[in-house]
Predict the 3D structure of the following.
Amino acid sequence: MKELNFPDGAGVSPVAVSEPFSLFTQDAIQRMRAEILSSKVWENCQYSSNLAQCQLRGFASQYAPFVYDSWKNPEVLAIISNIAGVDLVTAMDFEIAHVNISMKSEKQKVEELEAFIDKRLTEADEGIAGCPWEDDKPIVDWHTDGYPFVCVTMLSDCTDMAGGETALRTGSGDILKVRGPQMGRYIEHQALRALGQTERISMVTSFRPRNFSLPDDTVLTTIRPISDLSELYFQFSEYRLEILEERIRDQLRALRETKRLGRKLNVRRFKNFLWEQGEFLAHMNKELVEDQLVIKGEIDDSHLLKSTEAQDGKKKRKQMGDIEMKL
């Protein structure tokens, strides 16, 4: 985070972005693709929004057992946690996993590559330094994720792919393209369009800290409009209340130990604990927006970190995906 010019204390880990890394075998990827591209998933779990045209969500626990078990596997969680620099668990079952899909015909693929090459040659001849062509129509527009960490798994063959990076906005406002993000909640990013392929399918799996004492900054701004609200709200409320339960039990143990040792209660510290839990509950209350107030597929710019960037998002919508991790 520091190298990207973010202030100390931003996020739950000093790690912002990882290099791309291999996590699953080719056989595993093919099994995941088979489950994700099944008719039941497409018929029951497809969403779209003004940020992305085709997304599959909330399918794994019912329709994709291999995908679900893979992300719950202790070895996989240990690898992800080691790279992230903090012990992580999957955010909730509904987020195993979120899939972004971009498809095009062979003719469209060729036309895009020809246009890209022609533009690059023209700019070279005229000395024009412009925005890269593939940035004009991203797969997923500028956004922050709802969860502290995400792992992005590329499910398409990248051999002949051009573009397709993730663009990050650093703490100083500069744009950085990376192949292996893991930024999640704390860094604005965008999935850039890929050239040279007829498909780009990426799977985004969300994580949160396992330790109940660490902050949980999860927000549902970009998630509510593309979710089954009943299931989303149940799972969000369940794990948040479990965190609160653990914190209260821990505080109760400390309170009883203080009494047993005949020590005086530190009132200021105890009141601070009560205030923090009040803020925790207030945040939950804010995120649980009533169903009739949620517009399906419409995501506003309130999730962006700066107002100027929000305006940029309104002027030009963009898109994203690779195995990588993001904080």
Summary: The chain has a mean pLDDT of 80. The first helix runs from residue 26 to 36. The chain has nine helices and 13 strands.
